[in-house]
UniProtKB/TrEMBL annotation:
It catalyses: oxaloacetate + H(+) = pyruvate + CO2; 4-hydroxy-4-methyl-2-oxoglutarate = 2 pyruvate. Coiled coil: none annotated. Catalyzes the aldol cleavage of 4-hydroxy-4-methyl-2-oxoglutarate (HMG) into 2 molecules of pyruvate. Also contains a secondary oxaloacetate (OAA) decarboxylase activity due to the common pyruvate enolate transition state formed following C-C bond cleavage in the retro-aldol and decarboxylation reactions. Its cofactor is a divalent metal cation; Mg(2+). This is Putative 4-hydroxy-4-methyl-2-oxoglutarate aldolase.
Length: 223
């Protein structure tokens, strides 16, 4: 079941999923995140990590290590770094571990570092910024595999995520089937429109009132 949903999600893009969530009046787009590393669309299930400020005592292990060790293909590491752009919450050795385990990519609502290394490793990272400053002694992991908030979006472990050049969208696992179905309907309609454009139809005809109505029109299309 979930495998199928992931495969179907992989055939979509962030815009179609955002439109589907719009249709349901739900928020899922993590505003302010961009690909800073290897440019590739990723889909998968969230493995969550919550970071926070260090309290002066030394950490037993570096942040995100358990999440990386426990994850593999089909998983995306999603890190709540609380919008910090002045300290990196992810780095190159972690990227090496992620690639070794086949992890799809990383999403962090703050800064990361060792970006050149991650690019060489071809690991997609969606972040708010890049900065050389280490987390060591400054930032610690508070917990992992629990609900977190990323750019104002509530994310639970196992929620679905799609990230591409347009941005990052989270889909609650409880409604993933419905959202993906709606997004597929939207993609189908947009393909027809693109074909009409290729056939020489005027833009004002192709993107007329029926385009503006797409977001209220696809819910019933479950063929
Ligand atoms: O020290 C850090 O912030 C982590 C780091 O560079 C790495 O994983 O390579
Ligand atoms: Mg490093």
């Amino acid at each position: 079941m979930s495998e199928t949903l992931i495969n179907r999600l992989a055939d979509l893009d962030s815009c179609a999923v955002s439109d589907a969530l719009d249709q349901l009046h739900l928020k899922g787009v993590a505003i302010g995140l961009q690909n800073v590393s290897h440019s590739k669309r990723i889909v998968g299930k969230a493995v969550t990590v919550q970071l926070g400020l260090a309290d002066g005592t030394l950490s037993k292990r570096h942040l995100c290590t358990e999440a990386v060790d426990a994850s593999g293909a089909g998983d995306v590491i999603v890190i709540a770094h609380e919008n910090r752009k002045n300290i990196a919450g992810w780095g190159g050795i972690l990227s090496q571990g992620a690639v070794m385990n086949g992890i799809e990519g990383v999403i962090i609502d703050g800064a990361c570092r060792d970006v050149d290394e991650s690019r060489e490793l071809k690991l997609p990272i969606y972040a708010k910024a890049a900065i050389p400053i280490t987390a060591r002694g400054r930032i610690v992991q508070k917990y992992w595999n629990e609900p977190i908030t990323v750019c104002g979006i509530h994310v639970e472990p196992g929620d679905y995520v799609i990230a591409d050049a347009s941005g990052v969208v989270f889909i609650p696992k409880s409604i993933a089937d419905r959202v993906i179905q709606l997004a597929e309907n939207i993609v189908r309609k947009e393909k027809i429109m693109a074909e009409l454009v290729q056939q020489g139809y005027k833009m004002v005809e192709v993107m007329g009132a029926s385009y503006e109505e797409i977001l209220v029109n696809t819910e019933g299309d479950n063929d």
